[in-house]
Amino acid sequence: MVDMDTLVSLCKRRGFIFQSSEIYGGINGFWDFGPLGVELKRRIKESWWKKMVRERDDVVGIDTSIIAHPQTWVASGHVDSFRDPMVDCKSCKRRFRADDMPESKNAKGKCPECNGDLTEARQFNLMFQTNVGAEVSKTSTAYLRPETCQSIFTQFKNVQIVSRKKIPFGIAQIGKAFRNEITPRNFIFRSREFEQMEMEFFCHSDESSKWFEYWVSERFNWFKSLGIKEDKLKLRKHKKDELAHYAKACTDVEYDMPFGTSEMEGIADRSTYDLNQHMKVSGKDLAYFNEATKERFVPAVIETSVGVDRTCLAVLADAYREEEVKDEKRVVMGFSPAIAPIQVAVFPLSAKLADKAKTIHLELQKHFASEFDSVGSIGKRYRRHDEVGTPYCVTYDFQSEEDHSVTIRDRDTMEQERIPIDNLKEYLNKNFSKFD
Ligand code: GAP
């Protein structure tokens, strides 16, 4: 398995992910996605949206504001209890999450870095605060959302009415979330600004267990559809004492990251807790009336909540491989063509052939993520595209002038085939459709 230093360095070198504000020395817990990273992220989000919204009749999407009415976070419990215990080292001034400390160190109250004395644990609220409006006062305090789901709950009634959906149905959203994590770490795994893809499925309490099982299996299959190796994926059922007070059940999808098996997604039976809380705090009725049975009830919620950045990291770590080819090391990012940032690259063999090759690229670009690459030897161009995970490279050579054919090279087998230029689109479509 790739180690994190190698992966972070490849991500920077090839333009997947940079440290945020690098020229100012960076800012801990924030990351920028480069030209290839943004494509990869988009593909992951598109795949999720397609699977969770477009291809279903029982889920609709929304896109809500990052800053919501502050009462939202009172109702959700975040103002009072979205906290981690924090300790500081009196000598080196480093800060730690008390619950992250090795037990022996914690008990002794000694710093894991310098063995200095630690302060008592203090509770630290992870929500970022800001002020809305010109005056800074107690009432101007607002929060950057720490999760995207709360606006799904507060907009439940509006969405249900306008979409004319009957229960059971779900509401999905992709968006940024912010948490002032005490110890952001492991690259983009735990950061202070990240993206979530959340879906809240509203159903009758009597059916929540059935839907919970259904969504656990759907979500596990989605990770496989990204091309992630199945033996690296796990489902972990939370024990009773691990569950949040409102949750009836929770199962995580985990991936074997280079730093250990880690949570990618949580699927939770949140019962009727969220809608009940928002009804209580807002005074508005969010209950549902079933016309057929004449029953009025507060729906239970099955939540699926996954981080875009964590999924990106799993995809990157999973795709990395090194191979020996004729005494040389070849680094390959074996992305599934379904999510590869560049799906096909077009090379002219010589500068003289650039115009003709460019025409092919411009045509392919209408249908695929295509890149035109004329820099360096063909061998070097292959290596570069192996390292960014381009599944196919097309070379236009002198023979192409005569036979209107090109060479197409497969990233994984390195085998080359000669095919007519007119068949390129069909060839690629056929090979990519296997991964839809
Ligand atoms: N609405 C439920 C919720 O937010 P969570 O377990 O706190 O539950 C859900 O977060 C997912 O969001 C996690 O499984 C993870 O993928 C992602 N996530 C949470 N905190 C994160 C962080 N600091 N950095 C990156 N991703 C994070």
Provide an overview of this structure:
With 436 residues, the chain is of the alpha+beta class. It contains 14 helices and 23 strands. The strands form 7 sheets. The protein has a 7-stranded mixed beta sheet, with helices on both faces. Helix 2 crosses helix 10. It is globular, with a radius of gyration of 25 Å. The two termini are 27 Å apart. The structure holds glycyl-adenosine-5'-phosphate. Glycyl-adenosine-5'-phosphate binds next to strand 10, strand 13, strand 16 and helix 10.
How would you describe the shape?
Answer: globular
Hetero compounds: glycyl-adenosine-5'-phosphate
Mean pLDDT: 96
Main sheet characteristics: 7 strands, mixed
SS content category: alpha+beta
Report the uncertain regions: none
The tally of strands reads 23
Whole-Å distance between the termini?
27 Å
Instruction: Report the portion of residues in β strands.
Output: 25-35%
Helix content class: 25-40%
Specify the number of helices. Answer: 14
CA radius of gyration: 25 Å
Q: Order the strands across the largest sheet as they lie in space.
A: 3-9-10-16-13-12-11
List keywords for this structure.
23 strands; 7-stranded mixed β-sheet; binds glycyl-adenosine-5'-phosphate; 5-stranded mixed β-sheet; alpha+beta; 32% helix; 14 helices; 436 residues; globular
Summarize the structure.
With 436 residues, this protein is of the alpha+beta class. The protein has 14 helices and 23 strands. The two termini are 27 Å apart.
Summarize the SSE layout with pairings:
Layout: H1 4-13, E1 17-19, E2 31-33, H2 35-54, E3 59-61, H3 71-75, H4 78-81, E4 83-88, E5 95-97, H5 103-108, E6 122-125, E7 129-131, E8 141-143, H6 149-154, H7 156-163, E9 169-178, E10 193-203, H8 208-225, E11 233-237, E12 249-257, E13 260-271, H9 273-282, E14 288-290, E15 295-297, E16 300-307, H10 308-319, E17 320-325, E18 328-333, E19 344-348, H11 354-365, E20 370-372, H12 378-388, E21 392-396, H13 398-403, E22 405-410, E23 416-420, H14 424-433
Helix pairs in contact: 2-10
Glycyl-adenosine-5'-phosphate binds at residues 147, 149, 179, 181, 190-191, 194, 196, 198, 263-266, 303, 305-307, 309-310.
